[in-house]
């Protein structure tokens, strides 16, 4: 759950900082209107659902525009674009070459880990959703 808070705070306070290079800017809201949609998996984890709702809530509070939350099944359809904010693991994050989302647990059970990845019109916010139940189910 810590990845959720760190990710949302990081994104909320840093996303729309203009830099010298336009390629490093990801715009969520432009002129008071959504410039992207939030995407989660068709069957998202509880953490991803909560993170998407929190991102939507705080962007609306800060910028005044409500970003739509869609599933990866909607990617072929229309959405407020061109940007995509991908929250949690989904078929869309799995399709990004080289993207590594933290996963799994060790005996220390202290894994939190998250990734904030931005490339072009896509922002990824995802973290380790593994739990003790997942580890027990995977054990031989």
What attributes characterize this protein structure?
140 residues; alpha/beta; Chitobiase, domain 2; five-stranded mixed sheet; two-stranded antiparallel sheet; 7 strands
Major sheet, described briefly? Answer: 5 strands, mixed
- Order of strands side by side in the largest beta sheet? 4-3-5-7-6
* Low-pLDDT stretches: 1-6, 11-22, 132-139
Percentage of residues in DSSP E strands? 15-25%
Helix content: 25-40%
The backbone outline, from C-alpha atoms, is: globular
Task: Give the H and E element order.
Answer: HEEEHEEHEEH
Q: What's the architecture in CATH terms?
A: 2-Layer Sandwich
Q: How many domain units?
A: 1
What structural class do the secondary elements suggest?
Answer: alpha/beta
Average pLDDT, rounded to a whole number, is: 76
Straight-line distance between termini: 27 Å
Helical element count? 4
């Amino acid at each position: 759950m810590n990845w959720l808070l760190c990710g949302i705070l990081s994104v909320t306070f840093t996303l729309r900082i203009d830099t010298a290079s336009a390629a490093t800017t990801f715009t969520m809201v432009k002129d008071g209107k959504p410039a992207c949609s939030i995407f989660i998996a068709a069957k998202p984890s509880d953490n991803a659902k909560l993170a998407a709702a929190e991102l939507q809530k705080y962007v609306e509070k800060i910028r005044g525009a409500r970003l739509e939350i869609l599933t990866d099944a909607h990617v072929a359809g229309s959405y407020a674009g061109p940007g995509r904010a991908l929250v949690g693991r989904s078929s869309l994050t799995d399709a990004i070459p080289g993207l590594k989302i933290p996963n799994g647990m060790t005996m220390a059970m202290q894994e939190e880990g998250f990734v904030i990845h931005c490339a072009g019109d896509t922002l990824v916010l995802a973290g380790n959703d593994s739990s003790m139940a997942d580890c027990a189910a995977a054990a031989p």
